[in-house]
Amino acid sequence: MLKQLLLIGLGGGIGSALRYLTSLLTTKFYFHQFPLGTFIVNLLGCFLIGILLGKSGLNIQEKDSLRFLFVIGFCGGYTTFSAFALESLQMFQHQDYALAMLYISLSVILGLLLVWVGLTI
C-alpha cells in the first residue's frame, strides 16, 4: 500500500507541475477569455490516458506499478478530466448508455452549480 501511495504521489506531483507549466506557457502566448490552458490539459490528459491504457497493455483493474505511477498519479495530477472521460467511455463500452449519460450530465451540471454555490457563499 505504501509503495502505491508513493508512486501515485510522485506521478501526481509531476502531473500537477506540468499542468501548471502548460497554463503558464499558454497564458504567455495566448491571453483570452477562453481557458485554453485548461482545455489543452484536459484534452491532452484524455489522449495520454488512452495511450497509456491502450498501447501499454495496462489493465485499469491491475495493481501494476506503472498504472499507479502514470494513470492514477500522473494523469490524475495532470487532469481529473481524463479519469472522468475514461469512466464515461467504459460505461458506453459496457452498453450502460443511460448510466453514462446520467453520469456525464450530473457531473457537468452539478459541477457547475457547486462551483457557483462555492463562489457565492
TrEMBL record:
Belongs to the fluoride channel Fluc/FEX (TC 1.A.43) family. It is a multi-pass membrane protein. One of its GO terms (biological process) is cellular detoxification of fluoride. The lineage of its organism: Bacteria, Pseudomonadati, Bacteroidota, Flavobacteriia, Flavobacteriales. GO terms for cellular component: plasma membrane. Na(+) is not transported, but it plays an essential structural role and its presence is essential for fluoride channel function. The chain crosses the membrane at residues 29-54, 66-85, 97-119. Na(+) binds at G76, T79. Keywords: Cell inner membrane, Cell membrane, Ion channel, Ion transport, Membrane, Metal-binding, Sodium, Transmembrane, Transmembrane helix, Transport. It catalyses: fluoride(in) = fluoride(out). InterPro entries: FluC. Pfam families: CRCB. Fluoride-specific ion channel. Important for reducing fluoride concentration in the cell, thus reducing its toxicity. It comes from Brumimicrobium salinarum. Its main location: membrane. This is Fluoride-specific ion channel FluC. It is found in: Cell membrane. GO terms for molecular function: fluoride channel activity; metal ion binding.
